[in-house]
Amino acid sequence: AAILKYLNVEGTITGCVYLEKMEKGLYLGMLTVSPLQQASGIGKQLLAAAEVYAKEKNYPKVFMNVISVRYELISWYERHGYHNTGETKPFPADDRFGIPSRPLEFIIMEKLI
């Protein structure tokens, strides 16, 4: 696994993404940008860096799990070339983090590299 980070001019981490080699390609998870820095292009740069990493390591695709009700996030990934594979995964049920007010599941999105 690898973690890519984005540093601002002061050297502070303002974004990161987790990448893990899996049988079907490179799994991308936890793409995160500081709330104060969102909409500044950091996420786009991290996503592009993850795709470069995938190409360098000869992974055929990058894929991820996205919560199905995160419509704006799904649209953002679609604008960057990812598509819904039609595959879903159950959202983990864990009462320690609250009870969802509606049914949740993950959709699997991917992009061929």
**Cα-atom radius of gyration:** 15 Å
Structural class category: alpha+beta
Main sheet makeup: 6 strands, mixed
Number of helices: 2
Task: Name the poorly predicted regions.
Answer: none
Estimate the global geometry from the Cα principal axes. Answer: globular
Instruction: Output the strand order for the largest sheet.
Output: 1-2-3-4-6-5
Tell me the total number of β-strands.
Answer: 6
Overall mean pLDDT stands at: 95
Oligomer status: single chain
Q: Into which percentage range does the β-strand content fall?
A: 35-45%
Q: Give the distance, in angstroms, between the N- and C-terminal Cα atoms.
A: 18 Å
| H-E string | EEEHEHEE
